[in-house]
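Please review this pair:
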Amino acid sequence: MADPAKIELMSVNVGLPKILATIHGDDVWSGIAKRPLATGEVMVRAANIDGDGQADLTVHGGVDKAVYSYPAVHWAWWGAQEKLDCTPATFGENLTLAEIDETQVRVGDRYAWGEAVLEVSQPRAPCFKLAIHTGRQDVPAAMTVSGRCGWYFRVIREGMAPVRAPLLRVLESDGPTVREAFAAVFAARSDLDELQRIHRASALAGAWRAMVARKIAGTVR
């Protein structure tokens, strides 16, 4: 595994909302279908990267989900175990990352990307739009079971970012790893002390904290 203090970018991907499918007569809009940027740099703003957007801000986007990243080290697993061929933006991510995964990055870690500063805010929870995007109904469940979820960044400082430049860690957090935060919500069994530790993480996104709180409430009954 690579040093998590320096994350290499394989691709930066953006896409605006469009109709992803029509189900029972209703159009399903989403910005999950993204394409790699060919430009040399891009503006990173508080809500998203320029050229990117989300259709339903009640569940996607917002300041805690401004930039979604996914580790390319998982591609081999997806190919071998799920027969899913992966390329940049297969999972709707903005940043396709090289040589790092959810066990190496902590909630609250901050990274400088050009002028911008990003902070790890929460794991990604898979939804039905991922199934439509990949053409595979089993992909969200496989992501949930495997914990190969990727994570979101919030933007601490806006600025221009070089598309081919690495992310450099400028603050190392003592918060939970992304994998630990994901397991706190989706694992079948959870330790109460561990759930409470994750719930206390100051940088954890409010929506994820609420899900952990519900898990705690169910554990103490």
In short: The longest strand covers residues 6-14. The mean pLDDT is 95.
